[in-house]
Structures are given as C-alpha cells and as structure tokens.
Amino acid sequence: MWIGLINGVVIVYTFKNTEITNKKSSEYETKSMLYLMGMHPNSGKVEIVIVDCFNDVTGVDDNFTLMLDVQSKNYATFSPSLIGQSLYTLFDNYVSKFNFHDYVLFSKPLNPNYLHDSNLRSFDYGNIKKNTQERIEKKLREVIIKNHKSIDETQFIQFLDEVTFFNDDYPCSHYIKKLSSFKSKSTISDLTYGNIFDEIRDKQSALKNSEIENETISTPKEVLRLERYITKLQINSLIISRIIGVTDIFKCNGIPVDFMIVINEEGLTKDRDLLKDTIQECNSNLSRTLFDKGTSKKFWQLSEAIIKIVRESKSECVYELYDELLLKVKKMPPHMNKISTQYLISLVLQGMDNDL
Q: What is the pLDDT of residue 121?
C-alpha cells in the first residue's frame, strides 16, 4: 500500500498483509508465475518475478521498465462479490505511484453465465455481463472506500478497463511445457513435468518465509533487496537440468562418464588445465545458448532432438549419436560446436541412466 509524504521528502511503498499460503494457493501462485514467464503477451520481456510483495506475483524486466501485476485466486466458486474483493490489490497498485503495465486476475474459469463469450481464456472487463459487473463493482467500491475513505469514479472505471482476466483450466504440467518449448510434448512424461512444477512451487513458497511486513521502498527496483524473487534464468536452468536428469547442468561438478571417450580421443587426459578449460567452455556454451534470447528456442529444440535420438538409438556411443544428430539437425545453434554438443549428448546419456 501507499502512504503519504514522510517529513515532506518522498512517498514510499509499504508492504502490508504479506502471508504464507496453503498448498492449493501456492499452486495457483506458481501457475501465475509461470504464466508470466511463458504465456503472457509480454512474457519475452519478463526476466524476474517478484513473489508476494506488490501482489501474489509481479513480473518485471531487468530494469523494471515493465511491471505486470497478478492476483491469483483458486476459489472453486468465484462469486461476483469475491471477484470484486479480489480486484482490490490490483486497484491499490493502479493508484500507486509505481507504473504497472498490466493488472491480471488469474483464477479458475469464471461461471459461463457471467460472460458474453465463455470460450475466451484471456479477456478484458468488457466480456463480463452487465448484471455481473454491477455486483463486482458494488463489492470493489465497498473495499476501496473502507481502505481509502473515498473513491474517484473516473479512476475506478479506468482501472476496470485495464484489468486482464485469465481463466486457468490447464494442468500444472502445461506451464512447464510452455517454458521448455519442446515441440513433441510426448518427449518427456507428464509425471516429470509435474515433479518439476512441484519443485518450483516449493522454491517459490520458501521465499515467503522471510518477514517483510511494514518494509518500505521508494523505487520498484529496491524490492530486490528483500530477496523475494525468482529469475527466468533460474527457472530455465532448473527445468533443463531436471529434464536431462542432471542435478545442475551448468555447474561443472564432474565429467559425464560417456564423455570420457571424447576426452581420450581429443587427447585431453594429457593436459589437466586444457581438460578443465574444455569442460568450462562446454558449460559456458550450453549456458550462452539457453539464456541468449535469440538462441534459447534452438537450445530446447536441440535438447529435444538429442533426447529423442538417445532414447531410440541402439548405440550409446557419443560419436555415433552425434552423427545421427547431424542427420536430424541441419543447423546447430551458434555457440554449440562439436565438442559442446557431444558434451550435451553425454549429459543426456547420464540422465537416461538416472531413469528419466
């Protein structure tokens, strides 16, 4: 919430009513976080998601020039009165001095009788029927007047025109699939996707263990010092690590057994420093390819192709698998040279041994 001038100096944002939520609420907050990273129209710009500070989740770019605010609700029955009440935190941010760029109410599908077109998954306030709007606005006005003592009707109507409603009826696995960008969704089992979702949910929930009640900031970027955020880089790292079956794909915690044939063939066993440099270069090339916006999709496509070949091939030889890959993938991502690709093949082979 916002408070007035402090000693005539600056208006600050004060965090109020932060909470620790139950498992079902956490699931919806995680869905809404992954929606911001992979399904919102501006997902390509979202690099950080702030958790339970401005709202349930808020997606931002690196410089906080984009702020997407989300309130998530998992009510089985979402009445117009509850909708109005749930819109309040979004309204509170709308009237703040921080510049938010979208206000999203993320929930289970609204009652079809409330809507002009119930087939839309994402829609604006105009898709809600007049009689339902009246009941929503009645409750929202009550909450605003209770907290703000008065209401600016022009501002009130302008806010409602800015709200996006997102009706979620997807399984948890869908949100991980959208981020992984695999074309063939059968490449990885839904159980694996579900386990990844649960791990992300637990990491997100753990951020709420810190106490931030009554903390204040004067610029949006200051929220980072509260350490309640997750980056897209962290999420993508976790997803690809779990899909491939390696604890942390980008940390050089050992050499994959199947990569030893490459090490011997390239004569790297004779020069320890050169071996270390090569492994570091392979990890760097994987990281650059995944986290470069221009090549990230190609990284997922390459990983998918390797997983498919490893599963279907009769060979477990890195060189033979690499040759098979070249028949399937005509153009490699820029940073993925031969040895880096063979290293990735070795990681996938290792992951298959872990029974992914």
A: 96
Among 50, 32, 28, 48, CA closest to 40: 32
- pTM for this entry: 0.83
Computed over its alpha carbons, how large is the radius of gyration of the chain?
24
CA dist., res. 330 & res. 210, Å (int): 49
pLDDT at 83: 98
Positions of the chain with pLDDT under 50: 1-9, 355-356
Residues 267 and 208 in one domain: no
Query: Contact, 88 vs 81, CB < 8 A?
Result: no
Nearest to 49 by CA among 38, 300, 176: 38
pLDDT digits (tens, 9 = 90+) for 156-206: 999 999 999 999 999 999 999 888 877 665 667 888 889 999 999 999 999
Range of the domain at 125: 2-238
What's the pLDDT tens digit per position in 99-118? 999 999 999 999 999 999 99
Flag whether 233 is in a domain.
yes
Give the model's pLDDT for residue 100. Answer: 96
* Closest of 282, 285, 342 to residue 317, by C-alpha: 342
CA 227 to the chain's CA centroid: 16
Does 258 fall in a domain?
yes
Number of domains making up the chain: 2
| Same structural domain, 229 and 326 | no
DSSP-assigned beta bridge partners for residue 59: 49, 68
CA-CA-CA-CA torsion sign (311, 317, 322, 324): negative
Q: So what's the pLDDT on residue 37?
A: 96
